[in-house]
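Objective 1b of the project was to move from sequence-level analysis to a structural picture of ligand recognition. The entry below was assembled by the postdoctoral researcher (A.K.) and checked by the PI before modelling. It contains the amino acid sequence of the target and the SMILES of the bound compound, pyridoxal-5'-phosphate.
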Amino acid sequence: MIDKKLYTIAVHAGTQPDPRTGAVMTPIYQTSTFVQEAPGEHRGWDYSRGTNPSRDALQEALAALEGATCALAFSSGLAAEQAIVQNLSPGDHVLVCNDVYGGTGRLFRTLIARFGIEFEFIDLSDLDHARQCMRPSTRMVWIETPTNPTLAILDIAALADIAHANEAKLVVDNTFATPLFQAPLALGADIAVHSTTKYIGGHSDLIGGAVMTNNEEWADKIRYVQFAAGAVSGPIESFLLHRSIKSLAVRMAQHAINADAVARCLDAHPKVSRTYYPGLPDHPGHELAARQMSGYSGIVSCNVNGDFAAVTKFVKRLRIFQLAESLGGVESLINHPEKMTHASVPEPLRKELGIGPNLLRFSVGIESSDDLIEDIEQAFEAI
Ligand SMILES: *Cc1c(COP(=O)(O)O)cnc(C)c1O
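Corresponding predicted holo structure:
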């Protein structure tokens, strides 16, 4: 269950009536610069790469939702991640969960590793192994939970302890759970990061990212990268995201109800061999998820009984679920990870993670769950 207080926070955080006009909504401050009364004398805003009132309002809302003292909004989820790892130095070592989002792996392996930072990708569900892999040079442990696309659950509190015993920071990509269903900072993580493109945006109409933290030193470091490198959320995107946050709690509640219905339908279906949803009692991470999450969010995956041709037939027959990458929007989407979102993951790792020709990932939207289940059932009749 979503903490009731978050429903109110989602609607009100960061929004004050406009002091000039009384407008209930924060206006879109579509401006690059701000007039100064005298050289260096201004009202707190001088140039929009540094600060912009539309972005300030969004950041205040994001911080309140995540229970953080600081939130910073970026032009994409990956820009937010880059701003974090840009603070590492040559010789630093980072442990990363091996089923991290494909674009995160690509950013670390192909762009950041060039600067002498070593990223080691391992299975972080094995806590003893995690402990053994920590080195004196380990500065950061980077995880995602639930993971994509097999919805594995990692123990945030335990990994925070392991990181802190080594004076490293724990970063949690909280995109799949959202701040409504999981509070990594309260569980001991140092930094939460989001692709706001997904549930927080929620309408498949923008790209954005955010970093939240209670650690002042890291807030300053990341804020400095945001200012110095400039991958900021623009005024219109900031406005749209802030607007989306107002309905986030009701949307997430509906996503979770629908995903639970879809997961149960798939789990019982003769044409499905395995269903992945942390809310199902037989999911390997169910107990841990029940402890550290307040709901199981809206993504469900499954292995279809059949080959790639049968799977293709099934996805083409679906009428409501649209075949597309991305997730977290109000509309239901279906994705074939092997050929779509995870095509860039090296083949041996894909095999290890169980991403094969018969795996499908459903981003369950907020339509009627009856319609969604009827859609799945009629499409299975085709194969
Ligand atoms: C999409 C996604 C990202 C990357 O975010 P962009 O907004 O596409 O840059 C990072 N992590 C997760 C879990 C994602 O789903």
